[in-house]
Amino acid sequence: MSPPSKFECPRCGFGIHPGDLQCGRCGENLRTKTPNQPVQMELTSIDLNRSKVEECSRVRLRSVETIPVSRPDSSLQMRIDELDRRERILRERERMLNARSEELEERTAALESGGKEEASDLSYDMDELRQKVRDELVRQFEPEIEALQHQLEEKESLLQEAQLRADMLEGGPPSPPELDQSELARISEEIFQELQSQVGRLPEVTDPGVLRTNIGKLDDILGGGIPQGHTVLFNGAPGTMKSTLAFTILYRSAVKDRLPGLYLSLEQSGGSILRQMEKMGMPLAQAEGRLKVADLRDLRKEMFEEEGNWRQLLLGYVQKMQREMNFKVFVLDSLESFRAVTEHRFDRQDLKDLFDWFKSLGITVLVISENTSTDWEESDQGEAYLSDGIMELLMREMSDSRVQRWVRCVKMRGTNVDTRYYSMFHDGKEFNLALPLANQPF
Description:
Among the domains are: about 1-45, no CATH class; about 210-435, 3-Layer(aba) Sandwich (Rossmann fold), CATH 3.40.50. The chain has ten helices and eleven strands. The chain has helices at about 75-170, 180-200, 215-220, 240-255, 270-280, 295-300, 310-325, 335-340, 350-360, 385, and strands at about 210, 225, 230-235, 260-265, 290-295, 330-335, 365-370, 390-395, 405-410, 420-425, 430-435. Helix 1 (about 75-170) runs antiparallel to helix 2.
């Protein structure tokens, strides 16, 4: 045991300062202590009061280096429980996904088997329908066949009578008429081929004087379609889908009516137009080579060896493609770009010469223009008065801040058209036209 410090009370151990005469805690007299000498205290033995033995209890201490304490970590246990719960959830999800995957495979197999059966049923139905159509056509043409046979018999009888009369005039004995078997076989073959061609294909009902747009309501608005040989303007502000509408008419004429067409773009590249139109449900492959989209790059390539100004080159390119393709529908995109490229003012007489040149080709021309009805002035914008038809497209803001595309036929020479406005929607595949819900847009 270390001796007490000279700065501690020898009785209670309270800290003291040198020169203190009395302890501040226990009141021990420090006068007899030498301040400079440390307080020493020897403890050799401990005297216990024997009278208090009964009140004391002996305590034995055993030296223990470490005492193990087992104490669970509550946060770690909570994490383990959470991981177990998530593992159970994942196993349940995996089980459900496996069950759904098996169910999907069963449905796919069922649909494939069912699709084959439906395809076979459809093929059977189409064969039965073709046979019914052939039988019906044969029944319809049977009176004509009988009438032709009757006419042939009458011709043979008349020929026999003429031969008898000739023999009587010559005084010789009547001889049976000689028929030209080769001529008779030729006539019979022509009749048979004509009837076979009529029975083998369905009759086509087409109006050679009208270009159908193949857009349901639009054909009704135009009184059946656009008269062939007309030059029609598609006027509208940006975003009114005038180029898409013109391309749709050109595309559907090539696909459904098998009419070749040419789309000449003087601003946008041909590849960009084809990609946009394919996204809108009009792939070029379905036209089967009857539709061509050209741009200025194609024009330079085709007219590389030609000489002349841009106006002559453009018109020469159109005329050259018309000889090669014999197209019946032509789209010019746009009239303003044509003016800019040719660097020509194009007054009223120039526009008349251009439209007359289009008519000389015998084709239907759809011209895209960026002018609106408020810009039409006879002194400056003569195309509105020289064209055969005008399709006006515009954007209208409705009362609830919605914007609709409206279209109307301003004029169409030679037809009785509906000049009312119609709202025009495009669902990603085709145009839909309907009367607007509000007469007065806001």
